[in-house]
Amino acid sequence: MKKPNRLLSETSPYLLQHAYNPVDWRPWNAESLQLAKDSNKMLLVSIGYSACHWCHVMEHESFEDESVAELMNDHFVCIKVDREERPDVDHVFMDAVQLMGGRGGWPLNCFALPDGRPVWGGTYFRIEQWKSILQQIAAMWEGQPSDFIEQAEQLTNGLQKTTHQAELTNSNEDEKRLQTMADSAKRSFDATHGGSKGAPKFPMPDNLLFYLHAGQTIQDSALLSHVEKTLTEMAKGGIYDQIGGGFARYSVDDHWHVPHFEKMLYDNAQLIRLYAAAFHYFKNPLFEQVVNETITFLDRELKGSEGAFLSALDADSEGVEGKFYVWTSEEFQQLPVEDAPLISKWFGIGKEAYWENGWNVLVRPYSLQQFCTENNISEALFKEKLAQATEVLLQFRSKRIRPGLDDKRLLSWNALMIHGLTTAYTVFGKEEWLTTAQKTTSFILENMRQEDGGLFRSWKNGQSKIPAFLDDYSLLIQSLIAVYQANHDETLLLQAKNLTTYVIEHFYHPATALFHYTSSFNNDLAVKSVETYDNVIPSSNAAMCMALIQLGIYFEHSEYLVMAEKMLQCHYGLMEQYPGNFSHWGQAWQLFQQQPLLIVSGKGASAALREVRKGLPVYMLSAVAVAESNIPSIAHKPFSGKLTFWFCDHKGCRAPLGTIEELYAELGFNALK
Question: Which residues contact 15 (CB under 8 A, 6 or more apart)?
Fold first, then answer.
């Protein structure tokens, strides 16, 4: 019987996957770091996540091998890190590897001095490579430790220099900035398949949301066409689960066909919001279908009974990547599906869907109208047949051995989910989506709070752990504001403001006008990182900037707006040159420039606001006035029983209006398009 290591007492599914390795793994904590200092052993820090295919491969090849484990245990203090629980650790070591010219990715395997300063690292290594590296590093530490100490000093200095420094700039080109960003972004567009040119292809939902908002503002048809093209191609591809709903993390090819099969909460949460916002503008029924199916998938497979959402589904089942999701032509034809050849053709079996080794990744190569015309069947009848077939396929697939499930609840990812559900509710009006968003919000506020008013990052098995990071706070603040706009519960705005006060006290760095990723209580890393580049998830500083602008508008809080403006001024040049890496900054800047707020009061205000929002951009802030409001922007408006609309922006509030038609006329349009 295998003997467990110290990871057995952890709650992270990724760490628990390694609990019976012969490697003497330890979690990242003060005790492990002190052991390295006391024993004068180098740290070996291995970072990954539960849904990572190559993490599983390296574990099986190397970390389960007794001879490898002996080398690791004899010469190093071995630490396993779940990058999703401890992104702060991941940031520092990933930045270090990239600063040395290495390629980023996971698993990330790094060596550090006993005091935690990085020395060297890389990603996946084959077993013989890994053995050789272990032997070389151990020999050098024993024979020439000064070389490693010098390397660590240089690397730490480099990391500190690359930590973003504020360069406040004033610009007279504000009116041109969105167009400049749009023109820069277009250079990377794939006109054939959507997304960015080349492979692999990531959905990048926040980029597309920025292009959607910017395209509406500057009326850039090319930008808007790119958004619609990309979302359509993604929904037709294998990156989208054609029978179960939900998106995989990315496509390995340039046309969205074959995915890397892991399904992440953060992707799907943001894609719900994006597709809902896109439907709001384009009215494309495919986008509504994607929203419905993706929420159904998340509700079925990633929602915990307590109300929070789980983190991810693995790419692998039975040790094979994608096995749960692929189909052979033979098994497809043997299923009890009416008109199986027709359904097979719809999903591209044997042709567009074919991948390798007889496997097919289901796609949608036709539009509904085109397919029905070519096959001489009415759309209504085919949709009925397709729904029946899809249910049969889903039931058959559910009997297969399922991919692994990462069931920890992460605050920031749940915040993204709350925001996605709330946007979907705003666009489509399904009350159950708002109810779910409210339940998830309540769970976080009741179960993931620290005694001092701060938050925890992770929850599992009734236990909250790991102090929250800047992305947890900033994305939760945004989601609280989003839920407020849906249910008009002012206590949510007040909660958001209280959390902002906490963040400013414990994360703000006045010298840079930005926020550290970790709080003032966290000092166990060689460098305090400042996250500014937007990736698949918005950067924590961009998200905090957006939150400051939103709260600054609601609370008429000039200090928040001044802080946000300084943060934006650090990034003007980068936003214009690299819009794909600063898309959330672009959205924040757009909101800062406009500062739009619609306030509705009087009889039927909530219903009127739901109606009027059908013709307004989804990023516009809104509020329902109450008689005794605690929100300054609302409290300053005269309250009466008569239905009244106020529209305010950076120039001030316009005269009150009495009808939706008058409001649209005042704003210069009578429909979204």
Answer: 7, 25, 27, 80, 82
Cα–Cα distance, 239 to 370 (Å, whole number): 22
- 28 and 42 together in one domain: yes
Residue that terminates a domain, selected from 547, 563, 594: 594
Strand partners, 517: none
Positions of the chain with pLDDT lower than 70, given as ranges: 163-173, 669-673
How far is CA 78 from each of CA 81, 85, 87, 111, rounded to the nearest angstrom? Answer: 10, 18, 18, 9
Enclosing H/E stretch for 600? strand 597-601
Shared domain for 623 and 476, answered yes or no, is no
Question: Cα dihedral sign for 253, 256, 259, 260?
Answer: positive
State the number of CA atoms in the 13 A half-sphere of 336 facing the CB.
4
Give pTM, 2 decimals: 0.95
pLDDT digits (tens, 9 = 90+) for 17-71: 999 999 999 999 999 999 999 999 999 999 999 988 899 999 999 999 999 999 9
Bridge-based pairing state of the strands 312-313 and 263-264: antiparallel
Q: Of the candidates 144, 14, 7, which has an alpha carbon nearest to the alpha carbon of residue 78?
A: 7
In terms of domains, do 575 and 641 share one?
Answer: no
Q: What are phi and psi of 399, to 5 degrees?
A: -85, -10
What is the distance between the alpha carbons of residues 513 and 530, in angstroms, rounded to a whole number? 11
In terms of residue numbers, what domain contains 376?
325-399
| Beta carbons within 8 Å of 242's beta carbon, 6+ residues apart | 347, 362, 363, 364
